[in-house]
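Example 3.
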Amino acid sequence: MNSYRQNQRVVLALTLCGLLMGPLLGFAQEQAAGSDRKRPYPEKVPLNAKAEPLRIAFVSYANPQTVVKDSQAVVQYLNPFAGVPIQSFVTLDYGSSIEAMRGGKADLAFVDPLAFMMAHEQIGALPLLLEVYGYGKPAYHSCIWVRRDSGINTLADLRGKTIAFADQIDMSGHLLPREVFVQTGLLSSKRVDGEFFKQVYFAGGDEQAMRSVANRFVEAAGVSQYADQLLRLEERDQVKAIATSIESPSHLVMARKGLDKAVAERVKRALLALEISDSNDKLILSKLYGVQGFAEAKLSDFAEVAKIAARYGFVKKPELFAAREP
Amino acid sequence: MKPYLLRSLTLTRLRRAVCLSAILGSTFAPMLTHAHIIPPEKLHPVAEAYRRANFVLNLNPVKWDQIRSDGLAVANYWRGVDHFAADKLAKEIEAVISKAALAPNEAAGLSPMPRQEAASRVLGLLTKAVVPILRAHLHEAERRIGERAAALDLVHQAQGAYGAFEDVILASDPDAAHRLGQCWLKLAGSMGTPGLLGVGEVQPDRTTFRREAEEILQYLGANYGEDFSIPSGRKLAPWPMKSPTFNAKASLPIKLPPGSNVNKQIPRPRQILNMTARGVDESETALIALGDMAFDSAYIYGEPMRSLGMSCNTCHNKSITNPNLFIPGLSVRPGGMDVSNGYFAPHANNGHFDPLDTPDLRGIRFTAPYGRNGRFASLREFVRNVIVNEFNGPEPDPMLVDGMIAYMNEFDFLTNPALNKDGSLNPNASASARRGEKIFHRPFRQMNGMSCATCHIPSANFLDHRRHDIGSVTGYEASSRDRALDTPTLLSAKYTPPYFHDGSLPTLRAVNEWFDKTYKLALSSGELDDLTAYVETVADGVEAYEHTPYYLDAEMEEFSFFLSAFEFLDEKNKPELMNATFQTVALEIRNHKWELQDPAARPVLDQLVGIMDEAYAASQSGDRASVRKKVEAYRALYQANVERLK
């Protein structure tokens, strides 16, 4: 897994933890004694040991061994609900998960929106659940960050200046923020370098890009809305966002085309039932990349970002995502 | 090329993954909690060890075991690159440490290597080790540039190691820092990308990579190569003195070393203020409000406390001992540090390493004398010494000290339903505790006929207000008289481990075992159980911790309380105290703003900070009318947004 993607996950999880879980943890402690669940668990179903196992691909953003352990806890939670044996394995990047699904070796996989859209287009993968981050939203956006003392207040102020993105292949760390400039007519979608900016860098990660702004190595960074959380506290006040991108659906669980609908539905219900305010559920969610919960995903959630991905050649048929549900 | 194929887990990838896991762990751990939590800076292992060693080497005395540990950390990392060089480094550092730590022996003609010379040598050895590590990573990255993930990881490792020097270069050679920063960006960009599922592939640009890497290495080699040294009289740091753009007058940012923890404790301890418990209207207790502000203020101190944003509250969270507090080189274990080391107040350094366990301040109005060795008869003397001599502050305004005393006099012990008014146990206590109470009162021949209760007098809040040498302090020689310590109370002590002046005993049972062993009391196991049950019962209290979720509104309310002293200070014409109040409120909001649940309300906090900054500026210029308007503006804005500021 490339560091920038790990970084992205760190950024998302940081925000989730820092802004939400803190207060919620205390709240959860209060609720643990006995509260009414808002979302009931689905019915448990008897295991059909002879059925085809459900194979879930977890992606490792950090220590693969930790993810292996975490995935086992998730499997244990899902077991009573799935009705079929569950197997899990860990991949090191989204490409590997998609290739596993293409080869029939994975039924469910945790991916980012860009990888999902490509997987949908290439192998018919379907969105099952979106991860929920800060403020209960299964979405995030990107920002154009500058130093507060830079005198830069608008995108136009960045003409002839330098900018750092996280990586070429990164929805929140390149495509979304780059599109901000395209939409305002400051950049064409054809090229990013040598047109509007004096110099464009791909820093190798959200943190590297943000730190380059904080340290004045570049004038701007186009990365995730949460990237300021990667800075030290005293540095965070030194940066500000001057523009935001459209929202992208969050990272998601995608399903293999042809996966037994009943099995997929049962797993979906089981994951949807998880509530961060419940101490037991919170433990499971912490094994699921520390998300706050899950929300149902639809193809049409990706309609807008698919157009952006198409503009840069990652998606060929954005119309596949336009208000069409399987 | 088929991108994103399933790949085997190489050693490098595993190392990176482990490193990231550590980052995640260390970053998440505090972020999962709350209340002005400062996440630790994420540093490469080499940069972390180097920076910590650099900090400790500037202390007097130097804690050499910490230096040994950090030296080994650098050597161990280097071993993966060049084990011969790593072994040599470890040996050379050890040789210097053993000379520096040598006990002087005039008869044998032995004297330790002077501290500054030894510190300078060790920093030189460590500095010269960083560049080869960085060079090896960059060369390996270039060799493997076609393997994008591996090469990028190596660049990140190299950049991480560069973090050992980056702060100093940024501060003292900003032009070079800027140039090198862009080199790192170009390096990362020159590695291309394999794309995703066949899309977006960008070939690596080896020429650019090599050029940028060479520029970085050239700078580092020139400044931190074999002839690196630090002129005497200059603070020990990796100064890039060979750079033509080096600014010799630059000062370094004030930071605690990696591994420090000055975060408040979680769960939050429950503070009992007597006035609050009695239902007093806080809006009319101006002196206490001033004291509360001062207790939370870095501005009553001098540097480095101000720049670090540390206050009384850092070590005594709302009066209660902060068990997390740890500063490498100053602490032996969490919950204490050496406050007579020259770091915080060079003028008051006593020159020897004597870290103390941070005392709990509950019930402090009953616990005179003050200081672990009871060297101050009054709280006033003690507070003044903390401000001026422990933490380098200016001579405090008498009203400020009055305020602090007024506030601290409100600190109460936890209530304890197992105790009668005279300190004896009542039937709420367990049978074991009641048996222990008898042991507590039993005179022991081995203690000159005294009992535990002789010093910890139950009817006097378990104190005798005297100092005793119980044998817990090592004196400078066998017959020295420098071992006496003030008797500590047992009330509320259950929640403030560890115990003894140096925090050397982890539990109350360990304390009982220490007395049993030291004085050969021959207590049976059952008696120790009962005595521990008794002490734990006495030391217990109701609701030691807050059980409500933490939200920022409680902090915001407290900042308003600080400001409630404004009219009083205005009337008494105390601009300096007003200034401290404005600065403190502004700093506190800045520190807490990231805890706000709704980031959309963050601009309100920025506005409140701005108003406090303006009030400070107006006060500085003597414009009292503007100051009053700013205070009113703050109150109005706060009241208008009070529901959002959580």
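Residues 1-35 of chain B have pLDDT under 50 and may be disordered. The longest strand of chain B covers residues 316-317.
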